[in-house]
Amino acid sequence: MAYNLLKGKKGIIFGALNDASIAWKVAERAHEEGAQLVLTNTPVACRMGTIDELAAKTGSKVIAADATSVEDLEMLFSEAQKELGGQIDFVLHSCAMSANMRKKRPYDDLDYSLLDKTLDISAISFHKMIQVAKKMDAIAENGSILALTYVASHRTFFGYNDMADAKSLLESIARSFGYIYGREKGVRINTISQSPTFTTAGGGIKGFDGLYDFSDRMSPLGNASADECADYCVVMFSDLTKKVTMQTLFHDGGFSNMGMSLRGMTQYNKSFIDENRDENGKIIYG
Ligand SMILES: NC(=O)c1ccc[n+]([C@@H]2O[C@H](COP(=O)([O-])OP(=O)(O)OC[C@H]3O[C@@H](n4cnc5c(N)ncnc54)[C@H](O)[C@@H]3O)[C@@H](O)[C@H]2O)c1
């Protein structure tokens, strides 16, 4: 059901790769709610993914840009304002990548040049896009900027690797820039901490199926889907949330405040997994 929550608003959506992407669902919902959009992703992702399909569906223009490149971001904000006919009301940052994870480098054997890349793509790009937009005065008064995060920024999750550090930095940027941009132009900056979701990036996390199931069993409302995340993003872009800023907003069915659930305990009791031990018989707590 549509409520016209974004009627007359103009937005930029980063990170729709294919129809499993959370950004894809957000673009569809924002369009349904009356927004005009520009879609963006890296030149490679625009070629390899199916973003053109989404553009056709939502009547949007695709402008390729690497979110780690300040020049690309300047071009993007300038072209998007021309395309949409004025300042931007909302932006979604939905970009992440860990080359350490891709190359199966564990957290205690990180390649530091790959770590730089992880942080740049998954967190510093958020700072870059906000700084570029602010310098260009590209965001309208009371605009809303969102990024997607995961609870591994606060608590340790096996297999989440250097992405946990990237998400901590991402959330910190939302607070630090949220203060400055809020004070000066009423622009809100928040992150939404989403449940595990089956997407290209999600599938790159070690043991993702187990994590998904565990999270679902632990959450009183179950895991939140990408479509439900899109609903939340739309509300955060709308005028209904004008005084919400600098927050990490949990959209996870209650997972982040759980310790143990009945469904979790039942599953745990069933399995009594053999503990992982090293060659000396010592338990590996990894
Ligand atoms: N899937 C999950 O379980 C989950 C849970 C919580 C948060 N998130 C976050 O949601 C966001 C979207 O991920 P997704 O799960 O939809 O996966 P996805 O793979 O569909 O999206 C990730 C996107 O990042 C883009 N990207 C990578 N490098 C980029 C760059 N240099 N510039 C611009 N874009 C770049 C990719 O092209 C891709 O479109 C990410 O920030 C992810 O960490 C995902």
Question: What would you say this structure looks like, in words?
Answer:
- This protein has helices at residues 22-32, 43-48, 51-58, 70-84, 99-102, 112-135, 163-185, 200-203, 208-218, 226-237, 262-271, and strands at 10-14, 36-40, 61-62, 88-93, 139-149, 188-194, 248-251.
- By secondary structure, the protein is an alpha/beta fold.
- The protein has one domain: 3-Layer(aba) Sandwich (Rossmann fold).
- A seven-stranded parallel beta sheet has the order 3-2-1-4-5-6-7, sandwiched between helices.
- α7 links the parallel β5 and β6.
- α1 (22-32) packs across α10 (226-237) and α6 packs parallel to α7.
- The longest helix is centred in the middle third of the chain and has 24 residues, at 112-135.
- The structure holds nicotinamide-adenine-dinucleotide.
Task: Write out key terms for the chains shown.
single chain; alpha/beta; 286 residues; seven-stranded parallel beta sheet; 11 helices; Rossmann fold; globular; binds nicotinamide-adenine-dinucleotide
Gist?
This protein is of the alpha/beta class and 286 residues long.
CATH class: Alpha Beta
Provide the number of structural domains.
1
Structural class, please?
alpha/beta
How widely separated are the two ends? Answer: 44 Å
Tell me the CATH topology: Rossmann fold
Helix content: 40-55%
Give the biggest sheet.
7 strands, parallel
Mean pLDDT: 95
Ions, cofactors and other ligands present here are: nicotinamide-adenine-dinucleotide
What is the strand content?
5-15%
Give the total of beta strands.
Answer: 7
- How are strands sequenced across the largest beta sheet? 3-2-1-4-5-6-7
Output the number of helix runs. 11
Shape: globular
As residue ranges, the low-confidence spans are: none
Order of helices and strands: EHEHHEHEHHEHEHHHEH
| The CATH superfamily title | NAD(P)-binding Rossmann-like Domain
Question: Rg to the nearest angstrom?
Answer: 19 Å
